[in-house]
Design goal:
Layout (H helix, E strand, L loop, with lengths): L2 H10 L15 E7 L3 E6 L5 E4 L4 H10 L14 H9 L10 H10 L6 E5 L5 H8 L3 E5 L3 H6 L7 E2 L9 E7 L8 H11 E12 L3 H6 L1 H6 L7 E2 L2 H7 L5 E4 L5 H5 L6 E3 L6 E6 L7
Parallel strand pairs: 4-5, 4-7, 5-6, 7-8, 10-11
Antiparallel strand pairs: 1-2, 2-3, 3-9, 8-12, 10-12
Bound molecules: zinc ion (ZN).
């Protein structure tokens, strides 16, 4: 969607109710603003930062079938056949889509021969491909039909109906997905249903934590908006997962910090980095 159409849409939806898309609270305060009509709001109850005006679930679905493009070169650009062959021959090593660091962490969290993972929001499959090569038993889900279809080129069956996901998995993995969702509680409940009792909900997303805002105010302002209706922060995850063990941080290259977590307590590492992560055993959380 072009900027002008987004702007027009924001004006047309300016008078819609400003309710938190997570907890439904009507009490929030404006913490940032773009193009006069679009605001970032902090929910006073659950601490989610959310954009107003919001999109409907139907609009969101249609958007991801037809219009979703980003110019960061990472999220949605589909590679040519030659580029893809080159990436696959190196198992994406050293590319912008290399997840070998994350695979190392997942293996350290679950020291067992078979790890069952759901890659939720798999895009065209680059993460699922590397997970499979690491020996994980992977199921992949993607909302965008054209991207899911592209996964066939990587030998993947990316499903587009989340009701087809099979449960009893060790990890419900999602990277740069949650900030796009019109309904965050839905993903928590889905993960809870599909995880084993001590399985992990693992999420990576742009960091909306105040420590990051303090350090990089200009980046903070950039990271929410048209395609990012939610801006996740450490307080939100602490509240959402208040009854269960979690680890929250923003630098997953510090493997020793992650290995230092005993997996049964609630721990927050430094959250001033660019990318927020949370690992949580959410099975017994009441949402
Ligand atoms: Zn809320």
């Amino acid at each position: 969607m072009t900027k002008s159409r987004y702007f027009l849409r924001s004006i047309l939806r300016f008078n819609t109710a400003k309710l938190c898309p997570y907890c439904g609270s009507g009490i929030s305060k404006v913490i940032d603003r773009k193009y006069i009509f679009t605001t970032l709001n902090e929910c006073s109850q659950c601490s989610l930062f959310f954009r107003h005006p919001l999109d409907t679930i139907e609009f969101n679905y249609k958007f991801y079938q037809e219009e979703y493009e980003q110019n960061d070169g990472i999220t949605t650009d589909l590679p040519s056949d030659v580029e893809l062959q080159n990436l696959m021959s190196k198992n994406f090593f050293g590319s912008g889509k290399d997840v070998s660091g994350i695979i190392k962490i997942l293996k350290s969290l679950l020291a067992r021969p078979t790890v069952k993972v759901i890659d939720y929001g798999a895009n065209w499959g680059y993460t699922s491909y590397q997970f499979r090569n690491a020996g994980f038993d992977v199921q992949s889900y993607e909302i965008s039909l054209p991207r899911a279809k592209f996964g066939k080129k990587l030998g993947l069956e990316i499903i587009t109906d989340e009701n087809s996901l099979i449960g009893n998995v060790d990890i419900f993995f999602n990277s740069h997905v949650i900030e796009h969702l019109p309904d965050i509680k839905h993903i928590f409940l889905l993960a809870q249903k599909l995880l084993t009792n001590d399985g992990y909900f693992i999420s990576f997303c742009p960091n909306g934590s105040l420590d990051f805002k303090k350090k990089h105010p200009e980046n903070f302002h950039t990271f929410w908006g048209q395609v990012h209706p939610n801006y996740l922060n450490s307080y939100f995850f602490c509240k959402a997962f208040k009854n269960v063990p979690y680890l929250i941080g923003s630098d997953c290259s510090k493997q020793e910090d992650i290995e230092g977590w005993d997996k049964n307590c609630q721990k927050i590492l430094d959250v001033s980095g660019i990318e927020l992560f949370v690992f949580a055993k959410i099975k017994n959380q009441h949402f």
